[in-house]
Automatic annotation (TrEMBL):
Membrane-spanning intervals of the chain: 7-25, 45-68
The keyword Transmembrane appears for this protein: yes
Protein's name in the database: DUF2905 domain-containing protein
Record keyword Lipoprotein present: no
Keywords from the UniProt entry: Membrane, Transmembrane, Transmembrane helix
Name of a matching Pfam family: DUF2905
Length: 72
């Protein structure tokens, strides 16, 4: 099998798994609504920037990357 095709298939499966976990885990872990996320609502404008959520996701991805490098 072509390596690019294999990579795309694996990437697609990983994205589906992440999507399912996000749907199920959204009930228990309120990503996007953590303390420290910026939300400004005015009359006609709503601005939202999930600062703490971005930091949490970055730390988790960094740990996963570290573990992959550790066991390689």
């Amino acid at each position: 099998m072509n390596p690019v095709a294999k990579l795309l298939i694996i990437g697609g499966v990983v994205l589906v798994i992440i999507g399912v976990l996000w749907q199920i885990g959204g009930k228990y872990l309120p990503l996007g609504r953590l303390p420290g996320d910026i939300a400004v609502e005015k009359e006609n404008v709503r601005f939202y920037f999930p600062v703490v959520t971005c930091i949490v996701i970055s730390v988790i991805l960094s740990l996963i990357s570290y573990l992959f490098r550790l066991f390689k």
